[in-house]
């Protein structure tokens, strides 16, 4: 994804904190929190620091979490409205959503 205006975005899974972290130019720019229970990754919150908003960082976090869920054969519960909207805009992830 090249929608970040400047600098290099790196997304890492901080397993100890149960969150994906987006770093831009060495600074923490955003996080996506998660828990995994019974084969389901619950995604309750995505947040981007105000000064980094509008640079595609939330999308990078969402993509990383959803790609990892698929790789680990997990379903997802997109409690976060941003993640739910991301899945709607990117229907290739719709099969990951756990049935209600």
UniProtKB/TrEMBL annotation:
Keyword Transferase (UniProt): yes
N-acetyltransferase domain ranges (all copies): 12-98
InterPro entries, A to Z: Acyl_CoA_acyltransferase (IPR016181), Gcn5-rel_NAT (IPR045057), GNAT_YJDJ (IPR031165)
UniProt entry tagged with the keyword Transferase: yes
Molecular functions per Gene Ontology: transferase activity
Domain of life: Bacteria
Keywords tagged on the record: Transferase
Any single Pfam family the record assigns to this protein: Acetyltransf_CG
PANTHER family membership: BSR4717 PROTEIN (PTHR31435:SF10), PROTEIN NATD1 (PTHR31435)
Protein name per Swiss-Prot or TrEMBL: Acetyltransferase
Organism of origin: Catenulispora acidiphila (strain DSM 44928 / JCM 14897 / NBRC 102108 / NRRL B-24433 / ID139908)
Classification lineage: Bacteria, Bacillati, Actinomycetota, Actinomycetes, Catenulisporales
């Amino acid at each position: 994804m090249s929608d970040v205006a400047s600098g290099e975005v790196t997304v890492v899974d901080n397993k100890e904190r149960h969150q994906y972290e987006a770093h831009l130019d060495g600074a923490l720019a955003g996080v996506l929190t998660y828990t995994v229970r019974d084969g389901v990754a619950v995604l309750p919150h995505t947040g981007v620091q105000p000064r980094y908003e509008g640079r595609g960082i939330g999308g990078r976090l969402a993509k990383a979490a959803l790609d990892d869920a698929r790789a680990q054969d997990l379903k997802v519960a997109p409690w976060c409205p941003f993640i739910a909207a991301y899945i709607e805009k990117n229907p290739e992830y719709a099969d990951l959503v756990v049935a209600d």
